[in-house]
Every structure is written in C-alpha cells, then in structure tokens.
Amino acid sequence: MLTDALIAFYKTDGYLLVADVLEPDVLAELRAVTDRIVATAKGLTEHTDVLDLEDSHTPERPRVRRIKHPHKVDPFYRELARHPRVMDILSRLLGPDIRMHKGGKINIKAGGHGAPVEWHQDWAFYPHTNDDVLAIGLLLDDVGSENAPLLVVPGTHTGPTFDHHADGAFCGAMDPAASGLDFSKAVALTGAAGSMTIHHARLVHGSEMNRSERQRRLLLYEYTAADAWPLLGCGDFDEFEGRMVRGVSTRQPRLAPAPIRMPYPVAAHQGSIYENQRATGRRFFDSYSEPGKKRAEAT
After folding, report:
1. I need a labelling partner for 4 at 20 to 30 A (CA). Which of 50, 138, 176, 274 fits?
2. How far is it, in rounded angstroms, from Cα 68 to Cα 107?
3. What's the pTM?
4. What is the dihedral of CA 88, 93, 94, 97, to 10 degrees?
C-alpha cells in the first residue's frame, strides 16, 4: 500500500496518512469494543489502570480521555496490533522484523471538552539505540479540522530532541517559545474513519482541545525495528520478546547516531501524558494562536 514516493515522503517529512486501512467490519468491532470499555467509567471517582479520566469527569457524567494499554484490556486490540495491512505497511518503513513498544493507548477527545496534548516528541519518552521507531494512529471516527486532529510539524524528525523538562523534572512537553519552531507550518492529519496516521518518533506533534460537537477517537500503537533496543531497559525480557509482531527478534542492538535526552528526573505527575504535562510551564494550546491551515490528504 506504500509506493516508493510515499516512503520518500515519510523519510523527508516524517509522517503519512493512509486511507482505508481497516475493513468496515474490523472498524465496527473496534468501535463496539471501545464503547464497551468506556462505559465502565460510570461511577468511577478516579483514574484506574485502564481508564484515564478528564478533569471534568464525574461519576454521574463520565468522561474518559484515554484507554491505557488496550492490548491488555481486550484480546481484540492485541490482534489488531498485528493486522496484516498494518504490518505490510510498516514493513516498508521498519523492515521485516517489527516489535510493538509497550502497547499503545486510545486517546478520546469527546465533543466540547476533549483535552489538548501539548507539543512533544515521542522520542523524549523512550529513546532507543536507533530511531527506526514510529507510532501509528487508527481513526475510529471521521476526523476533520474541527474535531482536534493530530497536528505534526513536518521535517522535525531530522532535527534536535527538544527539552521536555520543567523545573528540573521531565514533564512530557516542549517549551514552544524556546523551541524556535514555526508552528504555523503544522499539518493536520485529517481523514475518514478506518484511515491510519504514521509519524516518526522524533517528529514534533500535538493536538488542541476538541471544540466541536463531534468526538475524535484515535487508537495509537508504537512500533520499532526489532534491533532498536530501549535505552531505559526492556524490563521483563519475556514480555519484551512477546511484543514481536512480525519477523524474528535479535539480541544485537543496532547503534545509530540520534540526539538523546533522557526523561529523568521522572515527571512529578505520573500516569498518562496528560498527567505528565500538568507540570508544563508555558502552554501552546491555551495561549497561542491556532496552527496553520495546511491539511494532509489521505493517500
């Protein structure tokens, strides 16, 4: 599904949007499973190991902003992470041997109150021995400019790793003013439900608050080439090996130059990126003008 031209575009710009990756029946099942899990938020008073709640959540009016590690919650998500179409696309970018990193999440921006995610690079959270590392986003809903699409800054994956610290501790967000980036060049990844976004781990990205009445749900999985090993360690080795989704593993990490900043000292607020970013100093989406209007077209 990826032409040589699209692969070249990914290498220079750091992102892609591919249409019609999920079949209609798979998309329908994805929505149904997700709705069932979100419904368990009713009655909750605080975050759980599965659900991350909006600040405006109440037990009577539940509002979920993230399903954490969905592959551990329902076997459907675990199988979806190995979907043949997804694997065929990623093998063109990462090679034949692919590992899933950690297990992903579903970010949910409900109509009228979906929380923003400040500008950041995934690479700041989990640097590896080489940067054949990326994330995909499977669109559960049609995403337009009005319901808080993923925003990316093209080409930033070839630049520096920005400081994601505040007051001496990791906070999971960049200082937008200190970065020197022109955020008017941000591209919104819009497309129909069933499409898939791809962005390099070093690419600067974020998303604003959903001010529309239409929800925006995005299932995110991170993947690496099998020879990209996490610099923070792999923890449980058997679990690490169990995250191979295509090809064969290796115990010989490939080393390649890439700018590294370690995410230490750890974030003052633990949990999801939303919690990490509570410590962010200067915010973009609360006080800055709207990013540029350029839009990515589904391929």
Report:
1. 138
2. 9
3. 0.92
4. 20
Asked whether the beta carbons of 171 and 277 are under 8 A apart, the reply is yes
Nearest to 146 by CA among 176, 123, 178, 114: 114
d(CA 87, CA 273): 26
Render pLDDT for 107-125 as a digit per residue (tens, 0 to 9).
Answer: 999 888 788 899 999 999 9
- Could you give the CA distance from residue 58 to residue 161 in angstroms, rounded to a whole number? 38
The pairing of strands 64-68 and 98-109 is: antiparallel
97 within 8 A of 249, measured Cβ to Cβ: yes
Assess contact for 162 and 121: CB atoms under 8 A: yes
The strand pairing partners of 223, in sequence order, are 100, 134
pLDDT the model gives residue 112: 80
Token digits of residue 273: 């990126």
Q: What is the pLDDT of residue 110?
A: 86
CB under 8 A, 24+ apart: contacts of 74-77 = 74/33, 74/37, 76/29, 76/30, 76/33, 77/33, 77/104, 77/219
Distance of alpha carbon 39 from alpha carbon 29, whole angstroms: 15
- Domain limits, the chain: 4-296
How would you classify residue 34: left for phi > 0, otherwise alpha for psi between -120 and 50, otherwise beta? alpha
What is the per-residue pLDDT across 140-167, written as a single tens digit (0 to 9) for each? 999 999 999 999 999 999 999 999 999 9
Between the alpha carbon of residue 233 and those of residues 169, 223, 229, 257, the distances in Å are 20, 16, 8, 18
In whole numbers, what is the pLDDT of the chain averaged over residues?
92
